[in-house]
Design brief:
Blueprint (H helix, E strand, L loop, with lengths): L2 H5 L1 H26 L3 H32 L5 H36 L9 H12 L3 H101 L27
Helix pairs in contact: 2-3, 2-4, 3-4
């Protein structure tokens, strides 16, 4: 029998679920290495991320259960459970690091160069246009192009600044939403754990109520039996088959008068 299941059946179930998830993560990353399509890699990585999130929730449940049983276990058992928890956390962190590595590689594969230079056809057109202009026209055209370039640079700087501001606001909003989601996940884990503990308490209370009902039924039967014996004894006091009840006085016998006035 598994040593963790010997300590607690609940801990054994959680440990089994975490082991299944680790096995699924190992197979999933091996499958991810063989996938060449970027979109399929992204979907596979999202699926593995969801499994790691479930594993993290189960490890939290395992830790809560260990802390709840810590006062009832001996030191050796507590040390064994804590070492098992640390082993789970270490293995999960290794998969998280592997996921980050694959995500970075996937991002590099999707990156596109947005700063391509002008083509050869445009250069040839500029050469032909310049050969047909006089020096003054070339100077005027050059000044005009410089002015347009300055305006384009100013517009680019403005767009870059606006993009930086939007990015900063977006990053702050994402950080706040991430913290809020983390708090919500922790609260949901706590609620889930409380519901499980409440279910166990309800089962224990139900067993106690059933035991109390059985005891009450036996007491009622005993009381009914004693009352029946008392009634039979009172109705038929000469019945020798029924022994006298301790503490109950025998019925008064009828007297005979020795002297009859008649």
């Amino acid at each position: 029998m598994d040593p963790i299941s010997a300590v607690s059946e609940e801990l054994g179930q959680i440990d089994g679920q975490i082991t299944d998830i680790f096995r699924s993560l190992s197979n999933g990353f091996q499958k991810l290495e063989k996938i060449k399509d970027v979109n399929r890699q992204s979907r596979q990585l999202e699926e593995l991320t969801g499994k790691m999130r479930d594993c993290k929730r189960l490890i939290k449940d395992f830790d809560r259960e260990v802390k709840d049983m810590e006062s009832r276990n001996d030191p050796n058992t507590n040390r064994m459970l804590n070492e098992k928890k640390q082993s789970m956390i270490k293995e999960l962190n290794s998969y998280v690091a592997l996921k980050k590595q694959y995500a970075a590689n996937l991002e590099n594969n999707k990156r596109v160069d947005l700063f391509d230079g002008p083509g050869e056809e445009l250069n040839e057109e500029n050469v032909l246009l310049a050969s047909a202009m006089s020096n003054q026209q070339l100077m005027d055209h050059g000044n005009q192009m410089m002015d347009e370039t300055d305006q384009a640079i100013d517009r680019g700087k403005k767009i870059v600044q606006e993009t930086i501001d939007v990015g900063t606001e977006t990053a702050a909003a994402l950080k706040a939403q991430t913290e809020q989601m983390s708090r919500i996940v922790n609260e949901l884990d706590s609620i889930h754990f409380s519901i499980k503990k409440a279910s166990q308490l309800v089962k224990e209370i139900g067993r106690q109520v059933a035991t109390d009902k059985c005891i009450m039924a036996m007491l009622v039967l005993i009381v009914i039996g004693v009352i029946a014996i008392i009634i039979v004894k009172l109705v038929n006091p000469n019945n020798k088959d029924i022994r006298d009840i301790p503490g109950l006085a025998p019925p008064a016998q009828s007297r005979r008068l020795l002297w009859n006035p008649n």
